[in-house]
Amino acid sequence: MEDALGTDLGLVEHIETSTAPLPGIELAEALHNEQYPALVRFLLLNGASWAEAQDAAQDAFTQMCAPGLSLTHPRAWLRRVAWRSWVRQKVKPEDACAEMPDAHTDLRWQTPAHAAELGEEERRVVSLLLQLPAKQRAAMAWHLDGFTTEESARAMGTTQVAVRQNLTRARAALKEGLGLEGRTHDVRRAT
Description:
Layout: H1 2-7, H2 9-17, E1 22-23, H3 24-46, H4 50-64, E2 70-71, H5 74-90, H6 112-117, H7 120-131, H8 134-144, H9 149-156, H10 160-178, H11 181-190
Antiparallel strand pairs: 1-2
């Protein structure tokens, strides 16, 4: 897959700007190296364990290779399919009406390499993210992956207003958890 990305950079650029559907298998080959780690991170920020995130991400790429599949928004499609795959891992058929699975809040998903990369403050932020309600956590994960509120709403099956509201609440909770609420008031008063 590395060769496909290296020899056909034009395809990768075309993927981001194209409005015409592209064959899934070509997209999978072009996007795997770039999007697999981002997809795993997206799932981790939604509350998946390391193993669950890897399994769901791989499942999404496998589904992308289905014969006859054409996509216009492959990055969002990958995240939707991987998220659904993760939820299927967590929710048993008899619990089909269950709420979103709870996130692992103890950061058990870190690999040794990832643990070395995360600093103390980053661990704290991720821990706070994982304590957010599922909808706020999902909105923030989409936002952190660079999606607009419109794209996030479409992918999450909700409205832009709901996404913005969940982002606002998530940011407020993170500020409070990090102790940043009082600092902004102090800075404003000093100026």
